[in-house]
## 1
Amino acid sequence: MNAMLRNTLKMYSNKKRRFIDGGSGCGQLQNGHNYRATSGGSSGGSGGHTICESVMNLTDAVIANFSSLYLSTKFSDVTIKVDTESIAGHKSVLGSQSDFFERLFESEMLESSQREIELKETDPEVFKMLLKLAYCGRLDLHELADQSDIIRVFGLIQRYQFARFEEPFLAKIKSYISPDNVWLLLESSLAECLVDCQQLCLDYLDTVISTDLLSTSTADYFIDISVQTLKTFLIRDSLRLQEIDLFLLTKDYVDNNLHRLDESERQELIQCVRLSLIKYEDLLNVVLNSGLVPEKQIMDILKDKAVVDTWDKTNSLVAIRNRGLYAPNTELCRDQFRFDIVSGSVGSSMDLMSPMDIESFDELDGNNNSSNNNVNDWPFVLRFGCPLNVNYVEIKLSDKRGDRFSYRLEYSPDGVVWKPLVDFTKYTTANYQRLFFQPFTVQMFRMSGTHQFRMDATTKVAIQSIQSFSCCYNRKQYSIERIDGFITTPYWIRSSVQQRVYHDSNKDIAVGGGGGNAGADGGDADHNNQHHLHHTIKYYSRQISSSKPILVALDQPVMIDSFQFYLWDDDGRGYSYVVDVKSGDNEWTVLSDRSLDVCRALQTIKFSRRPISLVRVRPTKIHNVECNEFRVKKFIFPKE
């Protein structure tokens, strides 16, 4: 074996050579083959010599040499005992490709004189297929004695840690799955506890749109699968098949296994079918006539379905999870998913009111008595070709940064029952909405709302069109909690909800000093992640003489019970102020009255939990300095 390795190393050392030639542009190897040289001059040398480079690819020859060692005793230095069979092996081949064998051959457990190892609970024929991959680099699937052997080979790849084989082998399994073998491969994957293979089979079953491909009439092995395998399939939320099709598939399985299924197993399978999602006529004509479901149970379902159209959280059907297709990290508003705009204009320019010359602060002062427009119809209705799983929605209501919107968004998993997603009709939001949710199943969206210029409610008009609408399912998204549609999770509030601060100026001042360059009047968008400039600190300000507050408008209302802000007090000044929030009743509510206190640095405002989208800080007095400017460094929602 050592002589073979030395010869192999010598061959690889000759793969690449360089020559010095006087101008022919060609070099010659010792074996007589000529190779075209790469042009180039000598670096720093004399004589204008040309450097030639050539690569000889002998991969096929090397693989052929190693393939000849497969199951051969030639140069063998280890014997692998699998069950009752002894298989010749080579430490250098196995140890270089498997972390398991590398550690085994290097450990003290295997003395240098020991030439035999035993592998327990391993099928010798399947292990030989793995060895063929290791020695020959290929495996013909037609040589498999059973289609499920491809799963068992992958199980040995993972058990004996041939890490470089896993990804390409999984890709081969994915392309190998078909209606004829998917049940067999799923059954084998569950038996071998191979999660990756299970997921490939289940993902394939998710895409099936007709039970004709899966039933006993066409699919092999379906009758013989275990009850647990069928249950693993039926409990999934991501199936494209309609519920009546799943019921018929289950009935087909039960009818063909009456001899081996007891009553409890039959009921377990029927319970996995979501009967409440089946249409009226199918419940009466198909399910009831099957004899598998008691008549009383069907009548109870029909009673619930009769009132489910009026959204009622006490209804038993509300807890039923609809099924929908999973398309992770893929934009769903595409032709691929038969996306259609049923009504409304998406992508066209907005018919908005012209911007005003000056900002109106009527609403900021709480003096605006205009009533909200009631939008009873649904100007925007969007539809997909099949139910889809979604946990993220993105809406660009307009391209006018700073304008505010109020809207309501609902969804339907089947086009019949509508459920509220968010209801921000009593609040104002930004023009760009990034909405994160726990996963839900949707086939249709509908939306209505109003638009206004900044904080001026007198300009409120119904939304005529939106710029864009998109949604997706993000597999890696963290869990998020919403109460009545409002985000409550601090992580999500700080990372996804941005702020817009209305103030006199946005100044950068030297640390410990006073003054600085004024920013744009009327307010700039301020994100939660404030950054400190080089030797400067940004702050927002209001002149007390203006009688205007510093106003913070959140991108969307959030459910919180506290927030914080930092007062700028580097010159020793103190402040008195009043903090208000605006809830959905169009009235400002005082949260903290510190008009008689002298406040500095970090301010924490606590209150009973409620949804808020607007916060204002009204300065009342500045202490210890003659300056008339109220200064705030940053706001934090909720408190840290």
## 2
Amino acid sequence: MDGKPYLQSSGHLPALSTLDYVLFSLTLAFSAIIGVFYGLQDRNKKGANNFLRASGKMPIFPVSMSLLASFMSAVSLLGVPTEIYNVNTTFLWMVISFFVAIFCAAHIYIPIFYRLRITSIYEYLELRFSKGLRLWGSIIYCVLMLMNMAIVLYGPALALHAVTGFTLWGSVLSIGLVASFYTSLGGIKAVLWADTFQCTLIMTGLLTILVMASRQVGGIQNAINVADISQRIYYSDFTFDPQVRHSVWVFMIGGGLLWAGIYGTNQAQAQKAFALPTIRKAQVAIWLNFPGLVFILLLCGLIGILMYAFYSSCDPKIFSLITASDQLLPLFVMETLGNIPGVPGLFLSTMFSGTLSSVATGLNSMSAVVLHDFLRPIFLTNLSEENSTRLLRFLVLGLGLLSLLAAYGATRMSGMLHTSLAMYGILSAPMLGVYTLGMIVPWANTWGAYAGLSCSIGLMSWILLGQHAVPSPREHTPYQLNTCTWNNISLANHTMLNAENLRTIANSLSSMQSQLQYGERPGLNSLYSLSYLWYNLTAVLVVFIIGIPTSFLTGSSDPRKLDARLICPIFDVLCPYLPEPVKKTLHFGVRHQDKYEEDEEKEEINRSNRNGRLGSPLHYGYYNTDRHHEVSV
């Protein structure tokens, strides 16, 4: 790195230029235009099926890109480089999580949902267990998505505002309103194609930042060498200690279950798979996510290494140049590339593209759940297809305003990536456990599902409250301040430390030089120290440990009477080359042979009948209720 960094030599960060604001505005405008285009194109197509599922006629490419973009939000884009900077590269083992999750989604969960021809995946819970459990699952999903949208709207905007001075509530409002606008006009088609544009922009922006910023640290290899010397390059943590946040086993098991919940039993992702014409194409679209996820993760990881190499001898957070780790990447981009015309604008567009995608996906899926699981079956049983489309548009707009109110409530936030993933562990993982219980345990009944879900959510909530009451020390690899030369530096909203404070900070840092060591924490404190990624395994295990005995105590289901379409022959999936007699034994009495034959014969007729209609086996008689033995409670 030749000469001083921009901030040290000038005393301030570069201001955003008109070009930067133009690039951000163009990102919003192009996303809105996509919504207008599909709103006009489909203005004569009435029916919720077209609005929510594109009548099952979408090509693979936009669906795959949308699946990739939806949960690769600005939270992840800011959080992953920060994780690498603060700790080490162990987080890159998340690639194992992606593989496990995509396999489970493509071959266990999505095929069952798709072949039932349902629109809300919570219909499965009614078909397998009871209507009450379906409503409970729908409520949990709506709460989860509102919380998630609040985080992805407010958190990144706050981090970018603190460093760049970019308007906080102006960005929150513009993102929320634009996402609501194009989703309400164009439905899922607009969401899928806008996500494709935004995902392309995310990858382009990250790659541009990586290439241009690498020049500031003497190249990527030099940055890796610097990080390696300072213990940031580390891949060999194979510990089973549940108190260690990240290890190979944590990602393989806990992370795999986390992402299985996101890709396999999440309404937002499943609904996109329903927009494809065949289950085979849905599986291809899901698998195409794997290289994309790995590519984005590696880009974020390498950017994190560049960040550390740049600040390796003067940590800006300890120096109080920033107030939260989530501001590291914006600071790095502005200091290294902020004087290059258009680059800050590209960075803003990259970050907020992730937010746009997440919010639009959440709005579209929540509108489907609210209409299909609450309004239509309970209050609006005779709603016409034309009115259902109109109602869906109003629902999207109303939910968009609600998400902005939720974002307004998220005024205190730190560690966005940790908060977001922990939230999924608490609410999404118990639901993953219930779906898995229903699909692979044919003896499970309604009461077992209720008991397992209740205990799982209760335990995970207890652990979360305990962690807030008895917080564990955050894991960090040592920082340094030995070459800090910042003096009287000002950012967009704060005047930072001057030279008089440097000696005090350096002295206090000397007592914090050693890396965090995990010690024994007695009693319940050891439970509260559980890694957030182990939440997922814990939640699923609780559902099984409580749900299976409860089912047998209250009268287990008879596998021979179950509709085989509700059950996944898990050993057929995991061990496809077993002899047929062995496979049949491992079906445990469930009659899987020819279970889709009748559906395939009627598929062409049903597809034409469902064109413009909400494809629900519960409401339109596609589902043979004689094959479903549970009594709703």
